[in-house]
Amino acid sequence: MIKIANAPCSWGALEFDLEEKSEEIGFERVLDEIRETGYIGTELGDWGYMPTNPNLLHTEIDKRGLELLGAFVPVALADSNAHGKGVETALRVAELMYSAGYENAFIVLADDNGSVPERTQHAGRITPEMGLSETQWKTYAGGAERVARAVKDQYGLRTVFHHHCAGYVETPEELDRLMALTDPELLGLCLDMGHYAFGGGDPVQALQKHSNRIWHVHFKDFDPEAARGSREANGDYFDALKRGVFCELGKGAVNFQAVVDLLNDKGYFGWIVVEQDILPGMGDPKACARANRDFIKTLGL
User: Is the model more confident about 101 or about 17?
Assistant: First the structure.
């Protein structure tokens, strides 16, 4: 049975160090509104956003009838000097989720997105010249596997890689390369529909190509008009976010009915997490969450 969750990023609680952080909505309200809008699970959000005491974390999640299913962990994987700290960070998060009783939760590993100026500036319009060298690819893949192995060995949790705009694995070609360089038994894939579309790909094709690696799914829509407006203004990734490049589900370019049909055909029984990434203070997150849940119901879920 496919289960539907949401995440704090849909309320503007993002991993980036932004001026708007002061406008973040508290986790208690986010969890309340996730439950009130019809979802049954949540991701953790940035470290420290929710309680870091496992007992308190379990109490907050459980008293709302929710389940904690994963946590986003950014690591600068192209830099071998960052791998050790990345492992420490992932283990800290894994320990929290494991100790709180969520032994089936995922580490959602990603690049340290938004930290490389060229990639951030050209999100959604990456060219091969902006990519990794052969040596960097080996470093990147090795770092991802090192994190996944440490988490699995110490806590038995699985790790999925989240491709992401404004990071080094954004385009379909870059994702294909990382999947080819990593152990399919060790590192799964979190397929994010919106990021894949913004990065120049068709999520339906990605689902067909990588179905055996997809252990976790993010539902995010992509508005080509917002992307075009940002591109014409020479805007960066955050400019695109402000323009609503990740719009409400069903209002963008992603063919979610085809995605759901394929997930059902492939026998996917994991989580779908709705993520409508916004910056703090943007819009009405609760209304969007309800609209997104209502849209998913039209898909039979």
Answer: 101
Q: Are 182 and 130 in contact (CB under 8 A)?
A: no
Cα distance between residue 252 and residue 147, in whole Å: 34
What does the alpha-carbon distance between residue 74 and residue 211 come to, in Å, rounded to a whole number?
Answer: 23
Residue 299, C-beta contacts closer than 8 angstroms, at least 6 positions apart:
256, 257, 260
Amino acid code (one letter) for 43: E
295 DSSP 8-state letter: H
> What is residue 25's DSSP assignment?
P
pLDDT digits (tens, 9 = 90+) for 266-277: 999 999 999 987
Cα distances (angstroms) measured from residue 19 to each of 47, 117, 119:
18, 17, 20
Closest Cα to residue 1, out of 218, 270, 190, 211?
270
The answer to whether 173 and 200 have CB atoms below 8 angstroms apart is: no
Q: What is the pTM of this model?
A: 0.95
Reported as half-sphere exposure (CB side, CA atoms, 13 A), residue 178 has a value of 35
Q: Which two tokens stand for residue 173?
A: 């070609």
- Give the start-end residues of each E strand in the chain: 3-6, 41-43, 67-75, 106-111, 158-162, 187-192, 214-219, 271-274
How far is 104 from 97, CA to CA, in rounded Å? 9
